[in-house]
């Protein structure tokens, strides 16, 4: 046992070294180049971290040795587990990594979704929301809290909340990014867009016109974890429309829906995905995700399929870049996940049909257990890069900011230590 533990620790250390060497862009840029001291009295840049992703543990042996006891996920095994096999989560680990990379520059304000308020965020110079947006609050039935979070998110430039509101809304309104991508020639699942409320008879008529034997309907706005989906055979609804009518009644308040044919693998199961992760504007890694097996995750092996999905994801990220802004200026997203659907098709040279299935913001699973990096190191460096970019734009805009001139001086020290921002 002791020998196995030593080997595991040695492997984790080696993986960490490998991640630093492999890193580029944000990860490489935040490696200290010069030792520039912080004069007394400047204080620190205060970064808020909204956490709560109990399903995204870091790799075994890579957690911070000072990980706060109160933030550990203790209930992480069995059917009633609140965590997925680990005490140490990627969101908290990222906050700890920011402070460890530049301990005399940054201090971290950890908060859960229930702690979010304009007053709390006003104390911070910048806040990264990793898991605690309005859609999660609504899904949890916390409507008063959701209203508070909406207020925070909409006023993102004054609350200094990342992600920025317009980009966030673009991602949550799936029909918005889908239509933009389709216009750009990016392959997606054939879709009927319902933009002004669900009408059972009208939708069924459109489905019949498409010739789809099986199809599904899902909300196009603020939908995740399979919520609000109805699916079935077209003929069954022709014979009995009542389930569709009931769906219409149940979703009177929802205006936007996506109607799509079943896309299945040759074995009849739901298609798989290769999820591509962009961190601070750069493609970093891709993870295979099985369509039906909850344990079916692994880093996508090198090869033609990985490369084809990567290139399609890069094309899609170009559309993301058109929307992502801070103070009206283009800015890289902290993390964007682009899910590429794959279906075996031997008639194609690649052997697969590939298409964009979804775009996700930073409030998603990062799958750090399977990526080739130490996820907190990658994301911690990216957060420092994002903080430098966003705060400089905030200062240029003349926004109200606590200790504005001290923040400006600390950013200058970071420039001297890390070199100027390249984008």
State the order of secondary-structure elements, H for helix, E for strand.
HHEHEHEHHHEHHEHEEHHEEEEHEEEEHH
| First-to-last CA distance | 48 Å
Q: What spatial order of strands do you see in the largest sheet?
A: 11-10-9-14-15
Could you describe the largest sheet, including whether it forms a barrel? 5 strands, antiparallel
Structural class by secondary-structure content: alpha+beta
Helix amount: 25-40%
Description:
This protein has helices spanning 2-22, 26-29, 90-101, 118-122, 134-139, 143-154, 156-159, 165-172, 174-183, 200-210, 234-239, 242-250, 304-323, 375-397, 404-418, and strands at 45-51, 106-112, 126-129, 161-162, 192-194, 214-219, 230-233, 257-261, 272-279, 282-289, 297-299, 325-326, 329-330, 335-344, 352-360. With 423 residues, the chain is of the alpha+beta class. The chain has a 5-stranded antiparallel beta sheet. It has a 4-stranded parallel beta sheet with strand order 2-1-3-4. Strands 5-8-6-7 form a 4-stranded antiparallel beta sheet. Helix 3 (90-101) links the parallel strand 1 (45-51) and strand 2.
